[in-house]
Amino acid sequence: MKHLLLQYMTRLTSLSKVEQQAILDEILVGEYSKGTTLLKQGEVPGNCYFVLKGCVRQHAVDVTGRDITSNFYTEEQAISIFNAHKPDKSSEYTLTCLEDCVLVVGRLDTEKEMYGKYTQLETMTRRMIEENFGQVQEEFAAFIASSPEDRLKTLLHKRPGLIERVPQHQLASYLGMTPESLSRIKKRIHRGPAAPGL
Length: 198
Hints:
Layout: H1 2-12, H2 17-26, E1 28-32, E2 37-39, E3 47-53, E4 56-61, E5 67-73, E6 78-79, E7 94-97, E8 101-107, H3 111-117, H4 119-145, H5 148-158, H6 162-165, H7 168-175, H8 179-191
Antiparallel strand pairs: 1-8, 2-7, 3-6, 3-8, 4-5, 4-7
Helix pairs in contact: 3-4, 5-8, 7-8
């Protein structure tokens, strides 16, 4: 599984093979069962993650008590918690494994030490975050401007496998609609456009 991380190091850094292997030897890879909670809303995060295999759901309970899904992380996606601006450093989200997962685990308390030893690792991490952040910004702008049906079509185009991997009520929450609306839209898309005059 570490070969995926090696691909990132090759693409985003000029680290030597020896340096790459040294980093791979130090990095922790963890296996987590379906249903495992990696982080609870309100906790101070101690780790960041990179998904080698599986699906992790990011969700939070709002003031009305609704459990709202804000993201799904799948293979080759980094899970970073940006909470440094908060006085108590607590997470606004819960992270839950929706499938059996294999994750690269980065300890936040040893992050600076790793970056000190391998300066290009920090550059690689920053580039990965920039790529991910740019994608999130683009998706959020499109989400706000699009209809529920367009949101589903975009998801089917960009992440076609996701719809089969996550429960429908969580997918509906992520797309900002009810499960019933999602079901109707899926049927409508599956049928395709009606013939002229019908």
